[in-house]
Structures are given as structure tokens and as C-alpha cells.
Write a structure and sequence with these properties.
The chain is of the alpha+beta class. The protein contains 20 helices and 22 strands. The longest helix has 20 residues.
């Protein structure tokens, strides 16, 4: 008899009840030590909100709608009762426990192994009806507490205050290993269950690199001015050399300058001899986005020698060899099938700026200057091969005389030595004129630090402008913001009319959101349940990356990445910015983005 899922659920409840990190770690460590290797591995995986290991391509594909149907059918509750319970707890897991609590259910019998088998069956099932029956079968065996954490695990949202990094610490603590060794093994193998067993058997040093699971991405710290960039970079150089300070001009000599592209940050895996022809693209949140960019997958199918490349997927103007605005990519995202028309209208390339793994060498500990040299050699070797890759499927049956489909699909990101503040300022202006977001400043001696945001990489992105807008609609949030109106639709003025131009939910404190919730409830015009229109009285100052044409809003524009800077209590709605001002900002952009 394997370990019970009820014990796992009770552990999750205990973890949710404490905010103390060391207490959480102790609870997990003690629990793992009580289990055999296979159950300890399953538990470590599930505590990290993963039904399958990172290297396992299976997915459950059981969304909120399907789970809601299962819970209503299992509990006998009405949809209204289901919605009320969901609003009370802010997630489906709390709702299902609440709705099942009144039923006379049976003693716990589920094991971790049974849950694993059920997840495998759900992932393999085709169609919502088949998945629904399997979910009903699993939840039908569960106690209310087990059902709560089964649903949370299926949705990938455990909400127990535990991240994978804490699970890794607990594994090390449980079996007397070094945390760094556990984390390195997880990074190499992409399999937390396997690493748990390795830690138990004291064999973490045997971990070997596997492709097709995303390594953590190194991140850049944002700066808004040239002066701030130089000052912070000087601080980084000083800390690297163990000095109390460094002059900005001296620090510049150790920096590389690159454009910051307006695309999708991605990691490309290819050339694995154990899985010939397999290619994968992973986004910054480690999701497999290969289906959205089939031409890139085709282009790298025949590349020999395993490699992991860090870069940016961008829509590409094949005539002048420059990136197109991000909006050219938006129709790609989330698509299972990308039409030939879309491929030709918005061709894509992979702009490479770092090489993380090649052949049997993990390059993360090498300095950027060495990684850059190897990247240049690598791209020179494979560039032409990525231009002539045949399309997959039945596309060979159709005549294709369009030359735009025949060009290298990998582009080396241009880089130069940074030599002066004037050069950095000029480079930013030229990058914007090329349609890119800004510039990157990178320390030539920097190692690649997965998941870290330090000063070794900086991104200079000046705010385009701000707009003073008035809130016209408020929506309830999700998760911990389920009970407050935290998502705000806002408008600019066009003569005597207000025309919506965007929506934002970040930038305010919890206290400010609570205050606005009370205010909007008292000044509601129409209440639609989750969303309500409100009297146009609250003025916000919002910042954004750029403005694009859009038919989503009555203004004909949309703000990209809007964020709230402050509530303008000093400004009446009659003095907000106008549609004309928004159009002026749009026309001032060197990289005008057009959304179809």
C-alpha cells in the first residue's frame, strides 16, 4: 500500500497555515523522510504544483470550465452555488471542499501512486467528455480535503506558500545534501522526482544535462536614464572586483551593448542525438511555444550537435532585415495551427544573443565574452542550413515561389563594446528608430545566472509618456484579489465623450485598491456581477510602453503594458488627457505598432 494522498493534503493544509519559511521547510523535510523514494519524488513534484516533470511533455488540459462541471455534477450543487463558493475562496479548490463538506463521504483511500495513474489517464484522454469522466472518477474517491488539493494541483495553483526553490531546499535538508547540488541536478535533468531519489541515495553528482526542458532565464534590471545605467553598472563592476566603488567611465570598458528587441524571449533547444529531429521553443515562463512558430521548428530540425540558445523571436522584415513591432506576433500566440498566409504575412526569425549549452558543455559559468565567441562560431556554421529547411507536412505539394520563405531563420544579435555615455545615449535613439524597445548593457565577465535579475545585465527603456485617464469600469480580480475591484478600464476624452483606451491592474497598493473598491461600489452605474460600469470620477496616471491602433476600445487605440503610477486626486475628470493627445503620442513613435 503506497503513501496516502490524504497525508499529502494534510501537509498542504499545514503549509498553508504558516507563513514561516523555516517551518514550511521543516514540515516538508520531515514528510519526505517518512516516504519511500517513489512517493517522495511524487510529493516533491506535486508540492511544486507540477503534475508531470518538466521533461515530460504531457499536459492535463483540464481547464476551469471542465472542473466546474465536474464539481457541480459530483456535489449536486447549482451553478449559482458553485459561483458563490468560488467567490468566497477565490479558487476552485476551496470551492470544491466547501461543496463536498456536507456529504457523508468515506474514509481516505487514495494513494499518491493512484493519483499519478489518474493524471496519466487524464492527459492521454481525448476530448472533454472523456476527461470529465476520469476527473469524476478521481474526485469521487476523494475526501473533501483531498478533492481540494487535487483540483488545486490540476489547475497548477496550490496556494500553500511554497515555490519549487523551497522544495529544493527541503530535499537538501531532508537527505543531508547541499542546496546548490540539488538545484544544479534539477536544472540539468528537469525532473524533480528523479532528483529527490538521487538526493536520497546521495548520487546527485550523477545528474546529466537533458534537453527539452527550459533552463531559467537570466533577467535584466530596468533603468530609465543613461546616468542611472552607468551608475548601477559601475556598482556591479565594483562588487565583482570586491572594491568599494568604481568610476562609471572605467566600468564602461567592461560592457557590451545590444539592442533590446520587441518580441518574445525564448530558449531554443535542438540537435539532441538521442531524439533526432526534435526541436523545441520555450517562453520565459517555461511554456512550450513550438506550435506557434512551425517555421522555426522546421528550420532547426536538421541541425547537428545539441545546443540551447537564448534569444528573442521577432517578426522580421525580410526586405531591410529589421524587426517588426510585437503586434505582428500576437496572432501567433496560442495557435495550434499557423496558416501559410500568416507565416508569409509575418515571417519570424530567432535573434540569438547567448549560447547556454553546446555538445556536452554547459556554458553558464563561462563569462559572456567567451559565450559570445562560441555563439558567433555556432551561428556561422548553421545559418545557411536554417534558410533551406524543407517545410513539414504536405506543404511540398504546393508551389512555393515566395522568396520570403527562404532566408536564414537565425540572426546573430549585433553587439558592440560600450565606450562612452554619449554612445549609449545615441545607441538608444538609434535602437528606437530601428523599431526596437531600447538597449541592453551587459557585463562582459558576467556568468549566466538562471532566474536571476541583477546588475550584470541592464535594460534601458525610457517611458514613452504618461496619460491621465478616468476609470469607466471596474472588475473583480483573481486569486487573493478575488473580493476586490482591482482591474480598471479607463478612458480619455474626445470632445464631450469618453472613449476607452485601456485596462490596467498593477501599480496600486492593497490599501488603495480597498479604498477604490468601496468607492466604486458606491458609484456603480451598472452591475454585471464580475464587472461594473462606474461613474467617471477617479483619475489615474498611467504609463505604458507604446500605443497601437486597435478596435478593442472605442478610442481606436490600445496601450501596451499599461501600469498605474498614481491616483490623481488633484485632478478632476474634466482635465484628463484627450484622444488627440493619445494620437500625438502614437504618431511620435518611431516604431508605430498596428494591430489588425
Amino acid at each position: 500500500m503506497g503513501a496516502s494522498f490524504q497525508s499529502f493534503a494534510e501537509l498542504c493544509r499545514s503549509l498553508a497555515e504558516t507563513t514561516k519559511k523555516l517551518e514550511k521547510r521543516a514540515l516538508i523535510s520531515q514528510y519526505l523522510r517518512s516516504l519511500p523514494a517513489e512517493d517522495a519524488g511524487r510529493s516533491a513534484l506535486y508540492l511544486s504544483a507540477q503534475p508531470f516533470a518538466e521533461t515530460d511533455s504531457r499536459v492535463l488540459n483540464a481547464g476551469g470550465s471542465l472542473l466546474s462541471r465536474a464539481v457541480v455534477q459530483l456535489s449536486g450543487a447549482s451553478q449559482s452555488a458553485m459561483y458563490t463558493a468560488y467567490r468566497r475562496y477565490g479558487d476552485m479548490g476551496g470551492a470544491v471542499q466547501d461543496l463536498l463538506a456536507s456529504q457523508n463521504r468515506f474514509a481516505p483511500s487514495l494513494t499518491l501512486e493512484e493519483v499519478e495513474r489518474s493524471f496519466a489517464a487524464i492527459a492521454a484522454a481525448r476530448g472533454p467528455s472523456a476527461k470529465l469522466q476520469l476527473i469524476l472518477g478521481l474526485l469521487g474517491k476523494a475526501t473533501p480535503l483531498e478533492a481540494k488539493y487535487l483540483v488545486k494541483l490540476i489547475t497548477g495553483d496550490m496556494r500553500i506558500g511554497v515555490k519549487q526553490s523551497l522544495v529544493e531546499e527541503a530535499i537538501a535538508h531532508a537527505y543531508g545534501a547541499e542546496v546548490a547540488d540539488v538545484r544544479r541536478a534539477v536544472m540539468l535533468t528537469g525532473n524533480l522526482s528523479e532528483v529527490t531519489a538521487m538526493a536520497m541515495s546521495h548520487s546527485l553528482q550523477q545528474a546529466r544535462m537533458r534537453l527539452f526542458h527550459a533552463l531559467g532565464f537570466m533577467l535584466a534590471s530596468p533603468v530609465a536614464t543613461v546616468e542611472e545605467a552607468l551608475e548601477r553598472f559601475a556598482q556591479e563592476v565594483a562588487e565583482e572586483h570586491g572594491e568599494s566603488g568604481a568610476k562609471p567611465q572605467e566600468a564602461i570598458q567592461e560592457a557590451q551593448l545590444e539592442d533590446k528587441y520587441d518580441g518574445i524571449r525564448a530558449q531554443l533547444h535542438c540537435g539532441d542525438p538521442e531524439q533526432p529531429g526534435r526541436v523545441a521553443l520555450f517562453s520565459r515562463n517555461r511554456e512550450d511555444i513550438s506550435e506557434s512558430f512551425p517555421e522555426l521548428i522546421e528550420a532547426f530540425t536538421h541541425i547537428s550537435g545539441p545546443a540551447i540558445i537564448d534569444g528573442e523571436i521577432v517578426a522580421w522584415n525580410t526586405t531591410d532585415g529589421r524587426a517588426l513591432p510585437f503586434t505582428s506576433l500576437q496572432q501567433r500566440l496560442g495557435r495550434k495551427r499557423v496558416s501559410r498566409e500568416l507565416r508569409e504575412r509575418a515571417p519570424v526569425v530567432f535573434v540569438a544573443f547567448d549560447l547556454l549549452y553546446q555538445n556536452d558543455d554547459l556554458l553558464l559559468e563561462e563569462p559572456l565574452r567567451a559565450r559570445r565567441q562560441k555563439l558567433e562560431v555556432f551561428i556561422a556554421r548553421i545559418s545557411e542550413a536554417t534558410a533551406t529547411a524543407p517545410e513539414q507536412g504536405q506543404s511540398h505539394l504546393f508551389a512555393d515561389t515566395n522568396a520570403t520563405t527562404r532566408f536564414p531563420r537565425i540572426v546573430l544579435a549585433p553587439a558592440m563594446q560600450l565606450r562612452s555615455a554619449e554612445q549609449l545615449d545615441r545607441a538608444y535613439t538609434e535602437a528606437r528608430e530601428r523599431g526596437n524597445e531600447g538597449v541592453m548593457v551587459k557585463a562582459l565577465n558576467s556568468t549566466y545566472q538562471p532566474g536571476r535579475r541583477g546588475l550584470a545585465w541592464l535594460k534601458l527603456k525610457r517611458e514613452l509618456a504618461t496619460l491621465d485617464v478616468v476609470v469607466t469600469g471596474a472588475e473583480y480580480g483573481h486569486g487573493r484579489r478575488i473580493g476586490v475591484l482591482s482591474d480598471y478600464t479607463f478612458a480619455v476624452r474626445d470632445g464631450d465623450e469618453l472613449k476607452n483606451i485601456g485596462k490596467a491592474y498593477s501599480g496600486l497598493t492593497d490599501a488603495e485598491i480597498d479604498e477604490l473598491t468601496r468607492f466604486f461600489k458606491q458609484h456603480t452605474l451598472e452591475d454585471y456581477g464580475h464587472f461594473r460600469t462606474v461613474e467617471p470620477l477617479v483619475v489615474l496616471e498611467v504609463a505604458f510602453n507604446n500605443i497601437m491602433r486597435s478596435d478593442r476600445h472605442s478610442s481606436g487605440f490600445a496601450l501596451r503594458f499599461p501600469r498605474i503610477l498614481r491616483i490623481r486626486k488633484d485632478k478632476p475628470a474634466s482635465e484628463i488627457d484627450t484622444l488627440q493627445r493619445a494620437e500625438e503620442i502614437y504618431n511620435s513613435q518611431p516604431d508605430k505598432a498596428v494591430e489588425e
